[in-house]
Amino acid sequence: MAALSTISRRLACPMTKRTLTTSSQLNYISVGDKLPDVTLYEGNPGGKVQTGELFAGKKGLIFGVPGAFTPGCSATHLPGYVEHLDSIKAKGVDEVVCVAVNDPFVMAAWGDAHAATGKIRMLADTCGDFTKALDMELDLAAVLGNVRCKRFAMVVEDGVVTGMEVEPDGTGLTCSLAPAVLGKL
User: What domains can be seen in the chain, in order of their start residue?
Assistant: First the structure.
């Protein structure tokens, strides 16, 4: 069964090299860097979204989470952004985006379950390419089945990072939460 799972992942993401380690260096994307241009998915595999185009001429906020329907993400992280969305938008943010290494169907269902649909864009980083490009890999294979994304919050203006908060251990619920980010907008 494990071999079938590996084959399935390779077929789904044939050009992606999968590493199962957490970044040991702090080479995260930083303020002043251009957002990498990677394909994410919204709603289904046909709902391609290019990150390089997503914030062209706009101010946006991206928050990354380890996984949809996980306890901290579902109880605190996503609901906080839904709750504070009007205040975030009042600070000039045009788009709020949630990213996780999940499939687009799971992300859509998670958005529906938390009344985020139509408010926060729920984007799937299916093969972890965006997570890798940001250097936000978090090895949770033992508990969630694969490499996931560290918790972070990023402000992007016209495709350039203007604010960045990364949870020190990759999983905590402090600096990447909506109230903390709102205070820095």
Answer: 19-182 (3.40.30.10)
